[in-house]
Amino acid sequence: MPAINLNDRRRDVARDICRTYGVTLSVEALHAFANILVPMKVLRGHKLVNEGDVCDSMFYVDRGMVLQHYKKNNVTVTEHISHEGDMVICIESYFLREPSRIVASTIEPSVLYAIPREAMETIASHSFELCKLIFKFHQRALIISQQKADVLRFETAKERYIRTMRENPEIIRRAPLHNVASFLQMTPETLSRVRAQVTEEGIK
Description:
This protein is of the alpha+beta class and 204 residues long. The chain folds into two domains: 6-154, Jelly Rolls (Sandwich); 155-204. It is 50% helix and 22% strand. The chain has nine helices and eight strands. The strands form two sheets. A four-stranded antiparallel sheet has the order 1-8-3-6. The protein has a four-stranded antiparallel sheet with strand order 2-7-4-5. α4 crosses α5 (128-154). The protein is globular and about 55 Å long. The protein starts with 9 loop residues before the first helix and ends with a helix. The model has no long low-confidence stretch (mean pLDDT 94).
């Protein structure tokens, strides 16, 4: 079976993105959006954004998993874990165009589609539909950030694990244990204990 050309999939990916964000585009707007997508097939450990880089693109995860992390007191802290259907963006760097303190790197072989900020803004300047799509991108990124902050403020370690298990089971299933623990802001030992409790109680 011949290998799929990732450029040939851009229109399908553009449709998938619009479906995910609840936006319907005209044929012309969809064509313009698909044409700016930059396909990337990368190995595990590839850095999409390095510390000190300016994040000038969003990245749609078509296949694979991406870790966003930073260093604090020489310890790697997991900020976010993204997988199929998610958008990766280092928010502060992207909006302010300042060097990122967050590193975004793949933890699985991955296929991603970059959405360059400048190209997206250019096509959106001629299309209300695409302005709406940009709004949806930014809205979801900010909501996810706020939701995570609220979870960490108000939920126990066990509640955080159960929520992730139910809402993001791929993270629990595929991400390395130490990254999951860091993402949930607990030690690996606490995570192991919580997982054992949840299993023992038959919580699903």
